[in-house]
Design a protein that fits this description.
Elements: H1 2-14, H2 18-27, H3 29-35, H4 40-44, H5 48-65, H6 69-84, E1 91-100, H7 108-124, H8 133-136, H9 143-149, H10 156-177, H11 184-196, E2 197-199, E3 205-207, E4 227-231, E5 234-248, E6 253-263, H12 268-278, E7 287-290, H13 297-305, E8 309-312, E9 331-332, E10 339-341, E11 350-354, E12 359-365, H14 366-371, E13 381-382, E14 386-392, H15 393-404, H16 408-418, H17 422-431, H18 441-467
Parallel strand pairs: 1-7, 7-8
Antiparallel strand pairs: 1-5, 2-3, 4-5, 5-6, 9-10, 11-12, 12-14, 13-14
């Protein structure tokens, strides 16, 4: 098992094909030494099929149990590396990056046509099944080009409706004849119709408005796990990778100690909350530097419970004027959670806290507020008999974080966080993560996590060379 996992890491380190990797195993003493294989007998038990079968077992295991063993290996090895270097793991930074699928980005017309054609091809493989006349054209050479690429722009809507109706008729025919109901092609056809169309009482299907189609919808039948996301002015079809890198400034060494690959509609805020709330590594971290997209009230609260200093390099949403006093300046009683004083030190005439909605509310003497030197900058609102303020816990946390922006500590941690932005670029360029030869998120994880392990080893070797332990 050690040898098989090591081979996956070496494969990503050198971007070898399975054949080249096995060839190096047999004829390159460096590989034999690295893997600890002393005898030819040990090597003879390994072949190309051994690797492909091992990857298949890893995929099947995750499908059955939900556990990704390569991800667990990544974290276990990172822990061993940190222990070997006596790495200070108290300082960490987090970032995410889009991992685009190698599948073709399809238009709706192309998608509907391809899914229907795949179903027809599936039917053509079954003995004694007579394909209905209205579907036979899908087996003809040149039919795809004629149907998709020679459609004028003003015909696109009508062509889409026509192809969806054919897809629906094909779906009904397969159901009625009860053939190939358990095939992947039929499952894709069923999913497509559910996501892309609406059936009328007359049995006619109408295309769903493109703006209402879920980002989770089928993008390409060759990669059914790929999802859609528009980010930073670009459209992405694939997954999103979240990374946590622990960095020791004294040793000038950083290790990726956590990675998670999910559908690309998974937000940074969700990644942040999941890591801080559940992952064991969060128990060792004292400072976590992230950008504003990771902000979520629950994450901040959990970080405070674990005494983690979270630094947000910037905040999303509308900026508050520098002249406005943040609601975090209002004093809150730790036991009752009621507002006890305003920023000027005045006590409220009325104060209440809604524990269910986490809303703070208070009223202040009108005369005091009218004469207050901070009146122009305070967020209280004038009412008939008093000045009133009401804000959520999320608003209070946000203003508290915004108040720290620009401080010396904030600038230091923001600059530190910027150091992780080059890591996704390195992983994509060096390990070609957007040209993975397989599709599907579970299969892709093997390539992604093995590449991260290889990158960690590379960093360790570089550190050892600096220390003079390994020759240049």
């Amino acid at each position: 098992m050690n040898v098989l996992v090591s081979l996956l890491i070496l494969k990503q380190q050198y971007l070898f094909s399975d054949e080249d990797l096995i060839g190096s195993l047999f004829f390159d003493y460096r590989f034999q030494y690295a893997l600890g294989l002393d005898s030819a007998e040990e090597r003879e038990r390994l072949c190309v099929n051994t690797l492909s079968n091992f990857r298949l077992r890893l995929v099947e295991y995750e499908m059955q149990t939900g556990r990704n063993l390569i991800q667990e290996e990544l974290e276990a090895l990172a822990e061993k590396m940190a222990e070997f270097y006596s790495l200070n793991t108290s300082l960490a930074r987090m970032d995410s990056t889009m991992i685009d699928s190698s599948c073709k980005k399809m238009t709706r017309i192309e998608l509907v046509y391809t899914v229907t054609r795949n179903m027809v091809r599936e039917l053509s493989k079954i003995k004694d099944v007579e394909i209905p006349d209205f579907l036979k054209a899908y087996l003809e050479k040149g039919h795809k080009n004629q149907t998709i690429y020679k459609t004028r722009t003003d015909e696109e809507n009508s062509k889409l409706a026509y192809l969806l109706q054919q897809a629906y008729d094909c779906f009904k025919w397969v159901q009625e004849n009860r053939v190939s109901l358990d095939s992947v092609a039929f499952q894709h056809l069923k999913r497509l119709l559910e996501e892309q169309s609406v059936e009328t009482e007359e049995g006619v299907v109408i295309p769903v408005d493109g703006k209402k189609i879920s980002p989770q919808s089928l993008q390409n039948p060759s990669d059914p796990d790929a999802t859609f996301r528009h980010k930073a002015g670009h459209n992405h079809v694939g997954s999103v990778l979240n990374l946590v890198e622990v960095h020791d400034p004294e040793k000038e060494l950083g290790l990726i100690m956590y990675a998670d690959l999910k559908e690309n509609s998974h937000s940074d805020a969700e990644f942040g909350e999941e890591f801080v709330t559940h992952h064991p590594l969060s128990e060792k971290i004292q400072t976590l530097a992230v950008d504003g997209a990771y902000f979520r009230q629950e994450t901040v609260e959990k970080a405070e419970e674990k005494d983690i200093e979270m630094n947000f390099s910037q905040m999303t949403g509308r900026n508050v004027s520098d002249t406005v006093i943040g609601v975090n300046q209002f004093e809150i009683d730790k036991d009752t959670h009621k507002i006890t004083r305003c920023p000027q030190g005045y006590e409220p005439t009325f104060s209440v806290y809604d524990s269910e909605k986490k809303i703070y509310t208070a009223k202040f003497y009108k005369q005091r507020c009218q004469q207050c030197p901070l009146k122009e900058f305070c967020q209280v609102k004038e009412q008939k008999k008093a000045f009133h303020i009401s804000f959520s816990e999320s608003k209070r946390k946000t203003d508290e974080i915004r108040s720290k922006i620009g401080s010396k500590r904030h600038k230091e941690l923001s600059n530190f966080r910027a150091g992780i932005e080059g890591t996704p670029s390195v992983l994509k360029r060096v390990y070609q993560l957007e040209y993975i030869p397989v599709r599907g998120r579970v299969r892709s994880k093997i390539w992604v996590y093995a590449s991260i392990i290889a990158q960690n080893f590379k960093r360790c070797v570089k550190s050892l060379r600096k220390m003079g332990v390994v020759p240049q």
